[in-house]
Write a structure and sequence with these properties.
By secondary structure, the protein is of the alpha/beta class. The protein has helices at residues 36-42, 44-47, 55-75, 126-130, 141-154, 206-212, 223-234; strands at residues 21-28, 51-52, 82-89, 96-104, 110-117, 164-165, 169-173, 178-186, 191-200, 242-252, 258-266. The chain is elongated.
């Protein structure tokens, strides 16, 4: 059971103020997860270098580290993880405490079904191809975030300038230790390049911007080509700042895509 110490004042200073208590930190249960070094890097107790004003502060830091320990474990797929802490007086060492943080990771959850909900792309499956997650893999937070970021990167390179992700849902099944993953996605309109507009203190008008662009009206929208245009303008060294963004025109192309103009803001 946890032991909450009484206030430990230690020796008195010249102004009769208590000397800060000292403590050592013991971490148990993270060995098989490979997370102990990362935990110690983020630990409130570790950050304080073994000193605190009083026992209550040590207890508060221990509770903060319990939460951190569970959060780190869940980020690596240990969704049943629990953590506990104890604070004890060290015999024959006045003012010295021993703090023990113990993790019980449990089992790792893996992906079960992986599904993207919402309107389909043209051609179908662009978003699922970009979402580089596979059934059977551990549910690791960094990999999930990277896969979702890849969707937002790839779709604007394939004709969809305005994709929007909803809030992911992962439904865990304790019996199978699988998580059914669903990602809501609104790909937005499929678009083609239209023309150019400009704003700001202009060095180039819209016609000159079009000369620098390496794409023509009617080509399927590709964010990489827009970035290439911006880099070409930056290379002229005529600007303090320059940006290029797509703007829907409300005009439909013969192939059914929506024309977007490239708005160039320049100073």
């Amino acid at each position: 059971a946890d032991i909450v110490p009484r206030e430990v004042e230690g020796p008195q200073g010249a102004a009769d103020e208590p000397v800060p208590v000292r403590y050592s930190l013991v971490v148990e249960g993270l060995e098989q997860t490979g997370l102990e070094d990362r935990f110690r890097d983020l630990s409130a107790l570790e950050d304080a270098r073994g000193e605190a004003v009083n026992g209550a502060m040590v207890r508060a830091r221990a509770e903060e580290d319990e939460t951190l320990m569970v959060r780190l474990l869940r980020s690596q797929g240990y969704y049943d993880a629990v953590a506990a802490s104890s604070v004890e007086l060290v015999p024959d060492e006045p003012g010295m405490l021993r703090v023990t943080l113990t993790a019980s990771p449990g089992y790792i959850y893996n992906f079960g079904d992986i599904r993207i909900s919402g309107a389909e792309t043209v051609p179908p499956g662009l978003a699922r191809e970009a979402l580089v997650l596979e059934s059977g893999q551990p549910i690791i937070a960094e990999q999930v975030e990277a896969a979702e970021a890849n969707v937002m990167l790839r779709l604007p390179q394939q004709g969809y300038p305005f994709p929007e992700l909803g809030l992911r849902d992962i439904e865990l099944d304790p019996a199978t230790r699988l998580g059914a993953y669903t990602l809501p996605l609104d790909p937005g309109p499929r678009a083609s390049f239209g023309g150019f507009t400009t704003e700001g203190d202009l060095a180039f008008d819209a016609e000159h911007v079009g000369v620098l662009a390496r794409f023509d009206r009617g080509e399927l929208y590709d964010r990489r080509k827009v970035d290439d245009l911006r880099e070409a303008m930056v290379a002229t060294r005529l600007f303090d700042s320059v940006s290029a963004e797509p703007v829907l025109t409300g005009e439909t192309a013969p192939d059914g895509t929506q024309y977007v103009n490239i708005l160039v803001r320049q100073e």
